[in-house]
Amino acid sequence: MTRRITWTLLVLTSVLLVLAVVPLAVSLTARERVAYRDSQRAATRVVAAAAEEHLSDNKPPTVMRQELDAAARAGDCAAVYDTSGRMVASTACTAAQGEEAAELVKDVLAGHEPEPPENEGRLVAAEPAGEVHRPAGAVVLARSAGPLDTRIAAIWGWSAAIGVAGLAASALLSVRLARWVSRPLSTLDVSARRLGEGALDERADVGAGPPEVRRLAATFNTMAARTEALVHGHRAVIADVSHQLRTPLTALRLRLDVLAAGAEGVTAAELGAAQEEIARLSRLVDGLLAVARAEQTAPRPTAVRVDEVVAERVAAWSPVAEERDVRLTVSSDGPALTVALGAGHLEQILDNLIANAVDAVPEGGSITLDRGRAGDGVRVLVRDDGPGMTDEAKAVAFRRFGNPKARGAGLGLAIVHRLVTVNGGTAGLEDTPGGGLTVVLDLPLWPERGGASRSLPVLKET
Prior knowledge:
The chain is an alpha+beta fold. The chain is 56% helix and 16% strand. The chain has helices spanning 2-55, 62-73, 99-109, 146-196, 211-261, 265-295, 306-323, 345-360, 391-395, 412-422, and strands at residues 77-82, 87-90, 118-119, 122-130, 135-144, 302-305, 327-330, 338-341, 366-374, 377-384, 426-431, 437-444.
């Protein structure tokens, strides 16, 4: 944003300077040329007036010689011609002589006003001696264009200096203006990012920047304060519910265990059924609390090694799978991939998926975990060869109690979906080739310096 504002102001200033300075310099140049020409013509007329006294009035050429000498001292070259075009007198230099001068004299004696040429860095002017239509002669004066060129160069030099100074001042002011506007926005962006990462006490600076940015920062702080109060309130409710529900459930389970220890027959069967319902209710409460925590989670991303977590969870669940005659494996030794997830989230995700798969797969079945690169992220697959799901069941599987035919509480996939999406990933369900269900997790890749992760192989779906 700073660069855009700076470049916009610089381009605007450059255009304004060009539109203002260039026409001014052109106008001053034209005025200098006219003034220089007028000065040259005035000097020519002075010599012509003195020459007229000699040519028409037959006075001594003394005054004419004096004016020619004065012109020579001023650096001009002058020559006096009579009505026949013959040179009568001249300065020591010959710049006012030759074919060019003869053409000018011819035009003047014919009563015309010639266009003074500019050749080889000099200006040549011709004036009649006497009346314009009946001249007694003509005077040609050649003057160097060096002083004029010097003045014009000075005009353009000063114009360029003014333009550069204006552009430098504009650059300085535009940079300061851009920083004044963009720095509070950058700070606000950092604060918003930190709030999104879970720093609920983050607040923006409301004392810098334009009034609109300060109002935006104040609005952000109000939103952050309300969000913090809301999240803390929900966390307190969850903690209270967890304590208030688990304590009586635990006490009730203990009492049923005591009663079941001495019961027989029908009573023992009824108490056993009651114990199973209490266990199911406990799992349901734990699942609901887990979903609530996942929905309220604002995780701070950390670097999580997928291969290490997958290997750890497979090792932890292998005894349970073996007890049910289910084969739990990792497809291959894939690359070392690192994802950006909240602490402990990947473990919780895999635990729910493996638990669901172990419950769904029949004896002799298999569960396979795979991982690899997929586009700009990391893909984790959990495949099983169990009964799978219908399209209708897959459409609602990530909702709370979405699958009424689930063996458990129906909250495992809901927890997985909340944890994946809150970390910026996606979760989906697909059919396993040959029968079964495949859970597809696309997780954000942890940014690594140097781009070393770009050369990793891409995971292909089967």
